[in-house]
Amino acid sequence: MTMLTNLRRPPYRTYSITQLCREFGATPRALRFYEEQGLLTPGRRDLARVYSYKDRARLQLILRGRRVGLSIAEIRDILDLYEEKGEAVQSAQALRVFRQRIEQLEAQRQEVEDAILTLKAAAGRLARQHPDAAQMVEA
Length: 139
Fold this sequence. Notes:
Layout: H1 3-8, E1 14-15, H2 17-24, H3 28-36, E2 43-45, E3 48-52, H4 53-67, H5 72-85, H6 87-129, H7 131-138
Antiparallel strand pairs: 1-3, 2-3
């Protein structure tokens, strides 16, 4: 067997649902949900789910996407592009989605900062107008 042939052969490592849950801190319910949504496609060995190296990599990307607030649909679109149109198209779509999410998070951050300033001002007014109430809270 030549070295080139050996490089093309995909790894045959498989993972159980328990192994992936333990590794990524996910629940079996979450993995089954991602399967129902078409994001993961584990094989079967009798009644047990058997996850491939590809499923493991996809799960890692799914969990990262969820952690930053991407929707299941956005994640599915990005993951599916790799199979349909290749890595360059997938990367371009991911970049668009990521930049859009950054804008959303920055807007949320501004809203939170504005809310904090408003609450601090209101708390200061209340504390000055009602010093007895302020002492009760601080005690």
